[in-house]
Write a structure and sequence with these properties.
Shape of chain B: globular
CATH topology of the largest domain in chain B: Immunoglobulin-like
Strand content of chain A: 5-15%
Radius of gyration of chain B: 25 Å
Number of strands of chain B: 18
CATH topology of the domain at 526-612 in chain A: Serine Threonine Protein Phosphatase 5, Tetratricopeptide repeat
Largest interface: A-B, 28 and 25 residues
Strand order of the largest sheet of chain A: 8-7-13-14
Number of helices of chain B: 2
CATH class of the largest domain in chain B: Mainly Beta
CATH architecture of the domain at 526-612 in chain A: Alpha Horseshoe
Distance between the termini of chain B: 91 Å
Number of strands of chain A: 14
CATH architecture of the largest domain in chain B: Sandwich
Oligomer: heterodimer
CATH class of the domain at 526-612 in chain A: Mainly Alpha
Distance between the termini of chain A: 71 Å
Number of helices of chain A: 19
Chain lengths: ~675, ~270
């Protein structure tokens, strides 16, 4: 027993001796050190991969409700008014409401990595060639600019953390950084993009890395955002803890600030345009050939050699794949995961395009002069001459996709059509009502319920879901399902709930068995030359509205006109006649409309309507989003007695309501971040 | 060996019991009851019930032991009163914001010009009354009548605060504009629940009348009729109330002033 004690004592004593030795005082060998990363290009590749994996790219792993790095139910377009979907309803308009929360904490992780690169790499400068060194520094600024931009467009003024915060060397309380003003935040975004532009290589040294043009392009987009907010924002206020103007601009200088930002957006866009590095994708394009123009625009999004691509996010199976095809595929082509048609374009979006008959107010023409439905021999006739860009973005009823006719039909009308067919949305013998007070779906209307004028004479047949069908015996004795194979259906929203299905971004060659979650690999185009043209046009036009003089040798009006002309020509849209078409506020609306059409489903339009401050105030079918607004669908019906088709246009049957009040342009700072900090201010008024 | 085993067991038990300390702090048991009344008439200031209504914001000032969550918010009931029965005893700042002249006014530099919010000790049942200057007074004139599913109501709108007084109080906050006084919209909200208001209205039947610039001005103080939209089906019971707002946002929200909600029975066929 005694021996044991002695042994223990010796052990304890010798342990004490060892710990006094200096040579054991080395950094842990299982942790990667600065000297491993910052001394050679392989180490830098690892470091940049770490940064890129956290980059806030709005791509196939982004949705407003779940924010970045989450690939479930990805339906770009669903909050911007371009589309509706089963899972994309009112709640989806709230940013970061589910699962991952708002984009805040993750932003500061990447910010720290970027600041660390910028602070540490200079000590290792000798290890790299000058070109490599400058590029890496540029990558640090680029990442920082991307984070600040992503934050500023969501929150306004943000904590501008521009150095590595050393904890626990300093107590946490001393390391807190308060929110700056919105103007200072945008100035920092500008400064960081400028530093990135000055340092990045002209071409990306590695596939997927940024380069000078990429930084210029994002600068152009960010400055257009800042300029628009400075011009159109109406709400401002001061933080209570800091008395800093954390949202909005000083009303006395806002106009001048807005011009300054628009000039930055303009010059950045022009630098890309004059570099000659990029051009609109026209590989298959041919003048006056709608089919070729359509095919050209279908191909451009999947072609990674496209000269229009400035920056793309690539995917690969199985390591890094996404599920866009699975979530959004037309119902009749759906894969075995059971998702489909998550992103159905609205009629409001389709009506922006050219090439079909419209009423004076711009809505689609579905009634004749007597208020009876226009009848079409084929379901495709109504859009037979539609703008090729529309067909490239949207699968219209009866269009062919993957070699199959996409069967979109709401129902079959079996009533007499010899004197034309009267509007369907009628309740108990009343008059047709296409307002919000009218019938919300076709299950309620007289023709279906055999009431009113149809008493005892059921004349409308519908499919309730993708698996339960009502069938109609046609005059020739054959049987037909009431609804199309791809919907729309009454009670399940897995079909084309608006009468349309998206086409943009689909891989046209993916076999049906592979249309599954985490199997798609089409690249997401984060930035393309088409947007640069539109940025230049809008910035130029805003500057000319503000009475600013263009740089020598350039004319704002011509730049704007030519950009819109080129975009429309490639799209096969109706051309502008001359530069004089762009005058006053209408000219601005033409430019904005072109942007909404061209950049739909690319996560751009939602930010556009936010920076224009029109999301809450634009009148949509009689209401504004401030009060709650609805979008429309176009519902094809087959008339069995005539063998013809007709279309009913009206508010979407699911009555998806979209709501945004003016103060929500600035998203709330996560509450726990505010309450645990002595400096971080909540948005004024919240 | 067995001794060591029991020893270890005893130590473990002692450690785990140590962490089982009771949370002996009493739950919140005090009650705050408040009313919001018009400083001129003494009538309650009627309001919407959520974000767009009257917000009560409490901040506890007496607790210093640990960081305390700031901005404890809740909302006024539609009759202009509020009650919170789960408050910790202590000293509080309680401010309210609604469709009335802000009680806490700050200038552009963020300095406080006026602070009419309450600093109170809450203990037992504490009652507070806020006397405010509502922007508008909305009143029923007569009783709403219903015919063929359409309700016709007569409403009178007057200012609760004179333009001169409004200017005197709002201008020092910066960014003042005479247009802030303009009435932008008058609404007749219809709902099938009594809590009818901006967050509970049936948009099939509710009416909104918009006014640009100062076009409403001549109608101030003049009773005018407003009718519901569409046809409310026979046999329905609905609740209606009228609301109006000026072109001025308190805490970044343009809020409505309301009149009292009334029940209307649409006769069965």
């Amino acid at each position: 027993m005694k021996l044991k004690y002695i042994l223990f004592a010796i052990l304890a004593f010798s342990g004490g001796l060892f710990s006094c030795s200096d040579y054991l005082n080395i950094p842990p060998v299982n942790v990667v050190q600065d000297k491993d990363l910052f001394t050679n290009t392989n180490g830098m590749t690892v470091y940049l991969s770490l940064m890129y994996s956290q980059m806030p790219f709005e791509d196939f792993k982004y949705s407003p409700s779940r924010q970045f790095f989450d690939d479930w139910l990805v339906t770009p377009g669903a909050n911007e008014g371009a589309s509706l979907g089963r899972d994309a309803g009112a709640a989806m308009t709230s940013e970061g409401y589910s699962r991952n929360g708002a984009y805040w904490g993750r932003a500061f992780n990447l910010l720290r990595d970027a600041n660390r690169l910028l602070e540490t790499l200079p000590s290792y400068k000798a290890n790299f060639s000058e070109a490599d060194y400058n590029h890496y520094i540029g990558e640090g600024y680029f990442a920082r600019a991307m984070v600040f931009y992503a934050l500023a467009k969501r929150y306004g003024g943000i904590p501008l953390v521009t150095s590595v915060l050393k904890y626990p060397d300093k107590p946490a309380a001393e390391l807190e950084v308060a929110r700056s003003t919105e103007e200072e935040s945008w100035n920092q975004v500008l400064a960081d993009y400028n530093s990135a532009i000055a340092n990045l290589s002209v071409t990306s040294p590695k596939r997927g890395y940024a380069n000078k043009s990429v930084a210029l392009a994002f600068k152009s987009e960010a400055m257009l955002f800042a300029g628009s907010v400075a011009k159109y924002n109406k709400i401002t206020g001061f933080g209570r803890k800091t008395k800093v103007r954390v949202i909005g601009f000083d009303p006395n200088t806002a106009a001048a600030t807005s011009i300054r930002y628009f000039k930055e957006a303009y010059s950045a866009s022009r630098e890309i345009m004059t570099s000659g590095k990029y051009s609109l994708y026209k590989k298959k394009w041919s003048a006056n050939d709608k089919q070729a123009q359509y095919q050209n625009m279908v191909d451009m999004f999947g072609d990674i050699t496209s000269p229009e691509n400035i920056y793309i996010k690539e995917y690969s199976y199985p390591d890094l794949a996404h599920g866009y095809d699975a979530y959004n595929i037309p119902r009749q082509l759906m894969g075995s995961n059971g998702y489909s048609a998550g992103n159905c374009p609205t009629l409001d979006f389709v009506e922006l395009f050219d090439g079909f008959a419209k009423n004076a107010d711009g809505t689609i023409k579905v009634f004749d002069a007597n208020g009876k439905y226009l009848m079409f021999d084929n379901v495709t006739d109504i859009f037979a001459n539609a703008e090729p860009r529309l067909r490239a973005y949207v699968i219209l009823p009866g269009d062919v996709f993957k070699g199959e006719v996409i069967d979109i039909r709401r129902g079959i009308y079996t009533g007499d059509a010899s004197n034309g067919i009267a509007p369907l949305r009628v309740l108990s013998g009343g008059s047709p009502d296409y307002t919000i007070s009218g019938p919300s779906n076709y299950n309620q209307v007289d023709a279906y319920k055999a009431t009113g004028a149809f008493a005892g004479n059921k004349s409308l047949f519908l499919d309730q879901s993708g698996t339960t069908h009502e069938t109609v015996t046609l005059p020739d004795g054959s049987k037909m399902n009431a609804g199309g194979k791809s919907g729309p259906f009454t009670s399940d929203q897995t079909g084309a709930m608006t009468g349309f299905v998206v086409r943009k971004w689909f891989d046209p060659n993916m076999s049906q068995s592979l249309v599954l979650e985490a199997h798609s690999v089409e690249p997401f185009v984060l930035m393309r030359y088409g947007e640069i043209l539109l940025n230049a046009a809008e910035a130029a036009y805003e500057l000319s509205l503000a009475g600013e003089a263009a740089p020598s040798g350039e004319n704002y009006q011509d730049i704007a006109y030519n950009a819109i002309k080129d975009i429309r020509e490639r799209a096969g849209a109706d051309p502008l006649v001359s530069a004089a078409d762009l005058t006053g506020n209408e000219g601005l609306q033409i430019i904005r409309k072109e942007r909404k059409k061209e950049l739909a489903f690319e996560y751009k339009t939602l930010w556009d309507i936010r920076r224009w401050r029109t999301q809450h105030s634009d009148i949509l079918n009689g209401s504004t989003q401030a009060d709650g607004a609805y979008y429309k669908g176009l519902y094809p019906f087959y008339s069995s007695t005539t063998g013809k088709y007709f279309f009913d246009a009206g508010l979407d049957e699911a009555r998806k309501s979209f709501r945004l009040t003016e103060q929500e342009y600035y998203l709330a700072i996560p509450g726990d971040e505010v309450s645990k900090s002595t400096l971080i201010d909540q948005q004024p008024g919240r | 060996m067995k001794k060591i085993y029991y020893g270890v067991l005893f130590c473990l038990a002692a450690i785990s019991l140590n962490s089982c300390q009771l949370d002996n702090y009493d739950g919140p048991q005090e009650t705050l009851i408040g009313t919001v009344v018009d400083v001129v008439t003494g009538n309650p200031v009627l309001t919407d019930q959520a974000t767009e209504g009257i917000r009560i914001r409490m901040n506890e000032l007496s607790w210093t032991g640990t960081a305390v969550a700031s901005d404890f918010d809740f909302y006024c009931m539609k009759e202009g009163n509020f009650q919170n029965t789960k408050v910790f005893k202590g000293h509080y700042n309680v401010r309210i914001d609604g469709a009335f002249i802000p009680l806490v006014r700050r200038n552009q530099a963020g300095d406080t010009i006026a602070d009419e919010s309450k600093y109170i000790d809450i203990k037992g049942v504490t009652k507070v009354e806020y006397k405010v200057q509502p922007f508008l007074n909305v009143e029923w004139v007569g009783t709403p009548v219903v015919s063929n599913g359409v309700i016709t109501a007569t409403v009178k709108i007057t200012r609760g605060v004179t333009p001169a007084d409004f200017k005197a109080k709002i201008e020092p906050m910066g960014g003042y504009d005479d247009n802030m006084l303009n009435i932008t919209d008058v609404r007749l909200f219809v709902s099938q629940v009594p809590y009818v208001g901006f967050r509970a209205w049936d948009n099939r039947y509710s009416t909104e009348l918009d006014y640009s610039g100062n076009t409403f001005e001549p109608q101030l103080g003049v009773p005018f009729t407003i009718t519901t939209k569409g046809v409310i089906p026979a046999g329905y019971t609905v609740f209606i109330r009228a609301a109006a707002r000026i072109n001025y946002a308190t805490e970044n929200i343009k809020r409505h002033n309301y009149n009292v909600a009334v029940r209307v029975d649409v006769p069965a066929k």
